[in-house]
Amino acid sequence: MSKTIEMQKKVLSENDRLAADLRRALQDKGIFSMNFVSSPGSGKTSLLERTLQQLRDTWRIALIAGDVQTENDAQRLIAAGGQQVKPLVTGGSCHLDARMIERVIPEIDLDETDMLIVENVGNLVCPAGYDLGEDMKVVLISVTEGDDKPLKYPAMFRRSSVMVINKIDILEWCDFDLETVKKNALQINGDLTIFEVSCRTGEGLDKWYDWLGQQVRKKKAALNPS
Ligand SMILES: Nc1nc2c(ncn2[C@@H]2O[C@H](COP(=O)(O)OP(=O)(O)O)[C@@H](O)[C@H]2O)c(=O)[nH]1
Ligand SMILES: [Mg+2]
């Protein structure tokens, strides 16, 4: 085995160990956690802004906003009403890893958190390989990206539990077929839960908010079985 492969394996197993610790810590507090992944510009921050505006008075939502440079997304999320928003600037790395999350977690009051959402760096490749201790990865795809992307980036769609198709308000101007993208994604991962939304018009978002509420309640029920 080459030295590079051995080193990659070591880094990944160290990441998996840290991610398992994070998952246990979140589990112990009954916090539902998600890792948002997508290409740059699919609408991760837009979906988080909408989610905060709708649910900030119902659930206590903590956010970690990852980016290669700038804290712009964190500022957008604070402007949308985020009470616990932590920027995580990688300074060049194309993905977040569990070590980075471990460093910011102490800045979040987990006793005052129902849901933790991490916005990963915009990239459909590298973030697929790094467990951050989340309950699930949520992959976004917008209608300008092409309905073949699940086939081109299968690891991301295989490791995600949810696919959100965003920007359906501009569907008629794009060569993007909803049925084709769903077929392609389900071919990679038949267990995907799929939402079709527009963060601009709000279409489809009620189902997303309902589903989020169900996940948070399920997590709390698992902690305090009656
Ligand atoms: N038309 C349309 N534009 C959107 C929608 N959601 C996001 N955008 C725009 O897409 C661009 C990228 O969105 P952003 O949330 O920053 O994406 P991120 O890089 O994945 O966080 C911004 O100009 C948004 O205003 C949508 O549903 N419809
Ligand atoms: Mg963003």
Describe this structure in words.
The protein has a single domain (3-216), classed as Rossmann fold, CATH 3.40.50. The longest helix is centred in the N-terminal third of the chain and has 26 residues, at 3-28. By secondary structure, it is α/β, with parallel strands linked by helices. Helices cover 41% and strands 19% of the residues. The chain contains 8 helices and 7 strands. It has helices at 3-28, 44-55, 72-79, 98-104, 149-152, 154-159, 178-188, 205-223; strands at 32-37, 61-67, 84-89, 115-119, 136-142, 160-166, 193-196. α1 (3-28) packs parallel to α4 (98-104). The structure holds guanosine-5'-diphosphate (GDP) and magnesium ion.
Report strand order across the widest sheet.
Answer: 3-2-4-1-5-6-7
* CATH domain topology: Rossmann fold
Shape, please? Answer: globular
Please, how many helices?
A: 8
- Unreliably modeled segments: none
- CATH class category: Alpha Beta
Beta-strand content bin: 15-25%
Helix and strand pattern: HEHEHEHEEHHEHEH
**Small molecules held by this entry:** guanosine-5'-diphosphate, magnesium ion
The Cα radius of gyration reads 17 Å
- What is the total tally of β strands? 7
- The CATH architecture can be named as 3-Layer(aba) Sandwich
Our count of domains comes out at 1
Ends: how far apart? 51 Å
Amount of helix: 40-55%
Mean pLDDT, to the nearest integer, reads 95
Per CATH, the superfamily is P-loop containing nucleotide triphosphate hydrolases
| Biggest sheet character | 7 strands, parallel
The secondary-structure class comes to alpha/beta
